[in-house]
Amino acid sequence: MNPIYLDNAATTFPKPALVKAELMRCVHEYCGNPGRSGHRLSLEAAEQIFTCRGEICSLFHYPSPEHVIFCHNATHALNLSIQCMVVHGSHILLSDLEHNSVFRPIHTLAQRGLVSYDIFPHRGDIIQNLKANLRPETDMVVCTHTSNVSGFTFPIEEMGEFCKERGLCFIIDGAQSAGHLDIDLGRLSFDAFCAPGHKGLLGVQGSGFVILKTRRPLRDFIVGGSGSDSLSAAMPTFLPDRFEAGTLATPAIVSLLEGVRYLQKEGLATIGAQHRSLVRRLSDALAGERGIEVLSVPDNPAGIVSFNIEGVHPAELAEYLDQKNICVRAGIHCSPLAHRSLGTLPHGCVRVSFGPFNRAEDIDCLLEALSARERSP
Amino acid sequence: MNEMTIIVGSMTYASKAKKALSDVGIRARIVKTDTNYSRGCIYGVTFSNEQFLSAVAELRKQGIQYELIKDR
To answer: pLDDT tens digits, residue range A247-288?
Structure first.
């Protein structure tokens, strides 16, 4: 019996059939080293990767495929973005809903004495919250687009304009919004937009990317072979080569290509509406139960429903559901800042997260399992 | 062979150039070359000599910078 998979915010599962098919075709037929050699297998791999840059640009309404820099995951993309643009001695603002993929890189820089930072709240007027935490030396704002715990979505358009007016670097963590929301990066003011390939964009694990729009001076990140300017001891100065040292994960990237094509065929509006409907159905059902606190935002497009049952440890509940063949995620979700903000430390909560292949029947099974647990002695 | 190769610097720009040419009906292929070039291994796009002027015009129009033109 197939499990009921409700952990899509961690990684989507299952993947569309064409994602799996192209991954296998790549491994079997053309997985040469892209951008290194001149033979057919290398060139085909490289051209598929370029096609993926183009499809990502199409999905995000962005004009320049060479600005798409492939990484291993969103954490890699965020580290790259922060490290290559941070000004030593400056001050950074991050939100109180950040994942550790943002919090830890910035905290580590602060521990080394290279930057200082403050955390701004997501409740109330976000722009006022940013203003209240600005310092003369503030140079960067790093913010999740959509929280992986609550599904709260930040107003990145207004935040982008705010940063642009003040000359602040604006880095967006799109880990939970990419593939869920129609994001127009062509119109948005930002410096870097980071996303994983294996979540809402439906690729397999091993790919992520930054869309690096910035015109700021950049510091090198990982350096090494790029397949270009090879006689130079320094990295190439042009994108994406400057930040793509080492062999790219071609199978993961071609799976991402097919995942993006799937989203474009199905339509982000359709998938977003489906997620909202599932979130509403489960949230309403849980909210009517005594002793259950729903922590997530109603109608969020990320497909996230987080909750706690009074007197029940989230990890125990997740283990019970696993025994019932239902996969959810419990705990801190790598987001201690978010759980502090939501008042759910130290144990966190249970998070249900939907993907494009979930149906209302999955919710019925989850609710039945929760009821059965309640009835059991 | 009656072919020309335009060196564009990297695989990504070669792919971009190939797509730009393909979009206006110019058949091109990506090649790797390192002969007589001072920066090491590098990629270019090769197409028919007869389409040279229109190819160069399209690359300029698309803002794709090329570094060297070679006869093949």
So the answer is: 999 999 999 999 999 999 999 999 999 999 999 999 999 998
| CB contacts, 8 Å: A35 with chain B | 10-12, 43
Q: Is B57 left (phi over 0), alpha (psi -120 to 50) or beta?
A: alpha
pLDDT digits (tens, 9 = 90+) for A327-355: 999 999 999 999 999 999 999 999 999 99
pTM of the model: 0.95
- Looking at chain B, how many residues does it have? 72
For A238, the closest of B10, B30, B33 (CB atoms) is B10
- The CA distance from A75 to the nearest CA of chain B, in Å, is 24
Number of Cβ within a 10 Å radius of residue A279:
26
Place of tokens 């869920």: A180
| Alpha carbon B47 to its chain's center | 7
Q: At what angle do helices A250-266 and A40-59 cross, to 10 degrees?
A: 40
Residues of chain B with C-beta less than 8 angstroms from the C-beta of A66: 12-13, 16
Nearest to B13 among A34, A43, A66 (CB): A66
Cβ within 8 Å of B, A 5-34 = 34
B18 CA: distance to closest CA in chain A (Å): 10
Mutation target vs B (from A50, A55, A66; most B CBs, 10 A cutoff) = A50
- Closest partner CB to A38 (pick from B12, B31, B38): B31
- Indicate whether A45 pLDDT > 90: yes
Q: Per-residue b/e over A229-261, b at no fewer than 16 CB within 10 Å?
A: beeeeebbebbbbbbbbeebbbbbbbbbbbbbb
Mean pLDDT, residues A132-154 taken together: 98
User: Beta strand A208-212 with A192-196: parallel, antiparallel or unpaired?
Assistant: antiparallel
Residues whose CB is less than 8 angstroms from the CB of residue A196 and which lie 6 or more positions away in sequence, other chains included: A73, A74, A77, A175, A178, A207, A208
